[in-house]
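Consider the following input, taken from an annotated entry for Solute carrier family 49 member A3 isoform X2 (Ursus maritimus).
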Amino acid sequence: MAGAEGDPLVADTTSALGALLGYRAYARRWVFLLVLSLLNFSNATLWLSFAPVADTIAHRFLLSTKQINWLSLIYLVASIPSGVVAIWVLDSVGLRWATIVCAWLNFAGSVFRTLPFLFLEIQDPFAFLMGGQTLCALAQTLVIFSPAKLAALWFPEHQRATANMIGTMSNPLGILVANLLSPALVKKEKDIPMMLGIYIIPAGLACLLATACLWESVPPSPPSAGAAHSTSEKFLDGLKLLVRNRAYVTLAVCFGGGIGIFSSFSVLLEQVLCVKGYSNEFAGLCGALFIVFGVLGALVLSLYVDRTKHFTEAVKIGFCLTSMVCVAFALVSQLQGQTLALAAICSLLGLFGFSVAPIAMELAVECSFPVGEGAAAGLVIVLGQAEGVLVMVLLTALTVRRAEPSISTCQDGQGPLDWKGECPRLQRAPKSTSEECPCC
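Applying the prediction step yields:
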């Protein structure tokens, strides 16, 4: 049956039958998808705009590295409580107003971050930087939940996975651009205002398009039978159904863990690799390969799933392959001089891990019926953000500082971190020693 669903003749017959039943796909669905993708892209660039130039930002405003890290970590922390509100907004207020509110929050946050440069007499610039990032973080919870709902309401069944992929993958594309653009723009402290101003442009454009071009949350006629019979449970009733849905809970925990690993990987990659002597440029290259291959894999897999409807099989295989690549990264990243191996592993991690993201989101919507699309997709992401915070806190808590000289290229002014969590004295002492490790 899967092969029949992908057959062109069957697809044409289905389209003809849909036309007879009054189903219609409107061309303006692509405008909605464009606005949502641009908004998701802009929000992602704002998330990581400071991280690649953390040293310069810290020196300019006399901030610590931890404070700079919080400008990115606030996205994960804020999304946990605000995510529940975003779920209610999407399913109760509607997709159009949720997107417009998100666009204005995102634009306001991007502008708010520039105030310390416009008004030099500001005494606490970190408060304005954090305030702007917080507004952008609140916008993230709305935009990142929306692709699955947009695909379900506006796109025919044979385009839903592809539409979900486009909307979802615009986020990692924004991360890729931020990692490459921020270091290219900021060579000196005086370049920081220019960088922030450039990031305002896509945020402002997305805000303008969302306000001017989005007129309705749902199309006048449904694009498919599934959209025609789509009914959402009340907010609290829907959450209760999700918690009781074993298949959904399993998918949410597994996919949420994947989101957490992705967030941790993006933030901590440079810190892990510099310990073994790898340069920041190489860490950036690994991050770029991770995202590029992930987007390519998502494109290919989404087209395949749209034709075959093998959602479950694709997700299971993707999870298994991703787990094996994670183990490989944990081992190889602790070795020196393995540039080719690390580059290949990061590419495979993106290829297998990222590619299942839009498919898993679509599957979450499918297996949670009749719960609303916003609740089904949103709860998965909220859980993923919580797992991301947990993973990052645990990883950093389990590390220890090395006191002895090493080949580390880390430039934080402190001893390099040992990501294996082993006691440095035990690494030097003979196995027969009875001396107790002071860091245990």
